[in-house]
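pipeline stage [seq->struct] | target=L-type lectin-like domain-containing protein | organism=Florenciella parvula | residues=485
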Amino acid sequence: MTKLAVAICLALSLLSGNGHAKKHEVLSFHGPFDDYDRTGLKRVIPKYKTFGDTVINENFIRLTPDRQSKRGGLFSDLYTNTPEFEAVFKFRIAGQGRKLYGDGMALWFTKEGVKQWHKGTELHGASSTFTGFGVIFDTFKNSERPHKDVSILVNDGTRSAEEMMSTAVGCDASVRYHEGRADFSVMHASRAKVTYKEGSLTLSLDAESNGEWETCATIDRLDLPADFDSKVYTGMSASTGALADNHDVLSLQVYSEVNELALLEESGHAAVAARPELSEIDELKHHVEHQFVAVYDHVKVTSEKLEKSEKADLKSLQDAFAPRIEELEQVTVAKLEAKLAKMEAEIANAANTLLEERISELERTLKSTLKRDVAMDVTKDVTRSTKAATDKSLNEMVAKLQKQEMQSQSRIQQLETLLESRFNAHLDRRLADLDGGNFTDEQLEHLTRAQTAWRTPFAILVIAMAAGCVGLNKFYSHLRKTHML
């Protein structure tokens, strides 16, 4: 009757809308995971980002496979900002190792969110520098320091990993499953419940996810900044080293009131049920998916090993045949160099022959051209020399003729003067001898003709000399034209 009353109250609460307001839908998730990215090839969880080796399958999220040196993470894009919240984290840590396995996984509530993933890897794949708290599920028992299977690490942003671990609180719990056991089932899982209210924290465990909660640790006052709960991101991370395990996340439910989860559990709500009732087909799908992922991972690892082995074999072959290959390379290079040298010599000889022939042809052409040019130059020089000599000879001849002409004119003038003076003197003497006697007209005419008779021969002589000068001038002009003077 009590359960019925609780169920009725819960139903009324849900119908009124308050139930949806109390649950952080954007921070909560559970399978099946049917959302895909834009390519349609990769499954995604809205408002969360995956990192590292994380793979989202249909019914579970695998942070790391059961392989060495793996690291995976899942962090929210949004945050809660309520003074109290409660979260139920359902997970499964399992592997083939019977005694040796590790390293573990963590559930984070911090102000850094995704930044914590990028800052470092020292705490199960995430950084130890953060503001908030984390629940650590450590499956590797380290003999060098005190060990707790489950512990709470608190950091105000200034503490180191060693300082946090030295004051960590927690408990031991069997939260790891051996997949080699005959009774192993993919329905095996564990749950952790985190209850935060006004600075206090309580961690409860349901190791076998059968609905039996046990308090693991309680912290009355967290050493955190006063505004811590104004912005709290959620996240999960896991890592493997020399030892490995499958670290799987099945669901996360976050509520803004601490009593909401209890009401849902009492009503048997499927979202928070320890072991939700599944049909045989759905349970078979879980098993097949788990086995398929294991086979796929095994094939992938085998392929990587084969590839690595092939590379090693190839390197061994290369190392073994390297001397022989080097020897063959040297012989081949030597032959090629000899052949190349021969070809170069032949090409050089052919080029030299062709060049010599071309040079000879150019020399012949040049000589012919030079001879022609020299002959022309010599002809021009001879012509110029002949012209110069002729000019000089003619100039000298003309000068001599001009000089002779001047001398002749001077001589003629002298003769003319002398003849005139002698004739006048002779005439005067004759006149004196005649002593002024009387002359007849015939005698006077005879005397007059005698006085002027000398002028006619003299005029003829002058005309002849002038004609000679004119002829000489024409002859000089003819010579200038014919000898290109």
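stage status: PASS
auto-comment: Residues 10 and 263 are 7 Å apart (CA to CA). Confidence is low (pLDDT under 50) at residues 1-21.
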